[in-house]
Specification:
The chain is mostly helical. The protein has one domain: Tetratricopeptide repeat domain (Serine Threonine Protein Phosphatase 5, Tetratricopeptide repeat, Alpha Horseshoe), CATH 1.25.40. The protein is built from 13 helices and no strands. Helix 10 crosses helix 13. The N and C termini lie far apart (about 35 Å). About 50% of the residues are buried. The model has no long low-confidence stretch (mean pLDDT about 95).
């Protein structure tokens, strides 16, 4: 429940590993450990060399959890995370929908379903899903990434002023997330605020995203970084990647 940083992720992983050592059959420990492993990769806080192993371990853990407890909503959410990390976004959608069928108020499922809707082209459905999640959990420890989802939609639709408002809220709520801050760097650059953009990108790299955020080419192939159906990829190219280039990120 602490702000998400490389340090808090390591601490959580260690604690979940200890829980699993005490009770290897714990569905809760399996699910939560798998979720943190995938989130560390998706947030740019796992070194590239370790990312594939983290995703593979998460997949094994969540499959064990679902086999033991198929009507528990949380493992379905985490299974969706693992599928997204493997760029199988179309298969992740039914997992999030299954979780919501079991628990209508499951905030994580709403947020991730919205993310999948974005990448599959249903961009107008994203903000209502995120707003519902915020209404359900306005003080959520992950509220920063919630705000970032809204900011990203505005960024992709070239509503740069609105994007900056939401992405600044996201940064202030979750200052330790490098990929989140890269969105703000891009928005600043598109606005013409190149010094702020360069400073934001430098901070994103310092926070642990130096490998992932070393170049446009590296960012495009990071595990789990599928940029959507063609029309969504085109929006990312025209806004997010264009802004990062203006902020000083090299092509390769």
């Amino acid at each position: 429940m602490k702000p998400r940083t490389p340090e808090t992720h390591k601490e959580a992983i260690n604690l979940y590993e200890h829980a699993l050592a005490l009770d290897p059959q714990s569905v809760e420990a399996q699910s939560r450990l798998a979720a943190v492993l995938v989130d560390s990769v998706a947030s740019g806080m796992t070194p590239s060399a370790s990312a594939a192993l983290s995703i593979a371990r998460a997949g094994e853990l969540v499959d064990r959890a679902l086999a033991a407890s198929p009507r528990y909503a949380v493992p379905h959410v985490v299974k969706g995370h693992v599928l997204r990390a493997r760029n199988r976004w179309n298969e992740a959608i039914p997992e999030y929908e299954a979780a919501l069928a079991l628990d209508h108020n499951l905030v994580a499922a709403l947020i991730c379903l919205g993310w999948c809707k974005l990448y599959f082209g249903s961009i107008d459905e994203v903000i209502p899903l995120v707003e519902q999640a915020i209404r359900l959990s306005p003080r959520d420890p992950l509220i920063g990434p919630f705000y970032s989802r809204i900011g990203t939609v505005h960024l992709l639709q070239s509503r740069t002023d609105e994007a900056i408002v939401w992405l600044e809220k996201a940064r202030n709520a979750s200052p330790g997330l490098p990929l989140l801050r890269s969105r703000l760097a891009s928005a600043y650059a598109l606005k013409g605020e190149t010094e702020r953009a360069a400073a934001e990108l430098a901070e994103a790299r310092r926070l642990g995203g130096g490998d992932v955020l070393s170049s446009i080419g590296r960012l495009k192939v990071v595990p789990g970084a599928w940029w959507g159906v063609p029309k969504i990829r085109a929006l990312f190219e025209a806004t997010y990647f264009t802004g990062l280039r203006k902020a000083g990120m090299p092509e390769e």
